[in-house]
Each structure stands twice: as C-alpha cells, then as structure tokens.
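Write out the 3D structure for:
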Amino acid sequence: MKKLTIPVDVFESDRINSGIRRLVRAGVLKDRPESQVCRVRNAAAGATWRTLRDLELLVVQIYGVFDTQPAISARLREFSKPFHGLVKERRVEKSESGKYVYFYRLVAVEEQVA
C-alpha cells in the first residue's frame, strides 16, 4: 500500500522554516527533552505534514521516548491557539482505501505589522 503524503512547495517550506528559525533565535523554542510538550513541539514544528504515527516514530528516533499517539494528540491540542509562538495546522486527506488520514504540523504565528 502506498503511503499518503502531502507535498510542500519550496516557497511554503522556506516561509514556515524561517518562522521557526526566528523563534529559535529569539530563545522561545528551547529544547527540554524531559517535557512531553517540548518533544512533540520539536517533532511537529516545520513545513512537513505528519500523521500521529509519524510523530510517534519521530519522537522515538530523536529522544528515545515512547510517547503514545493519544498523548501526542493531546499535546497538539495545546497548540490550537498560539502557544510558545506556534500554532497547529491540520489537514485531512482521503486515502485510496476510503479512510480519512489526518496530518498535522506546527508553524510560527505570523508577526503582525503595526
């Protein structure tokens, strides 16, 4: 079975990643591996769309900690409104089997021009 993915063009990727870099330089996104919200934030931040399963595997690869999909989902809900300078984006795609697949990513909140 072919894995469902969402492509991201280079302009969108550059815009999102520059926002993440801005937050890192400002010291807002500090790495605290003991914090589940920080592990999920670091795995989900960026232009790449990921499923809960993808995020679960990425957290294990980066930190060696097994955060469950329900726990990751709960942490992502904290980003429904801007939190730590990031906000959650969600997309739903229909797979070839007819099932709906949810994808997530965290992007930097756009700066407001005064």
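The helical segments are 10-25, 36-44, 52-63, 69-77.
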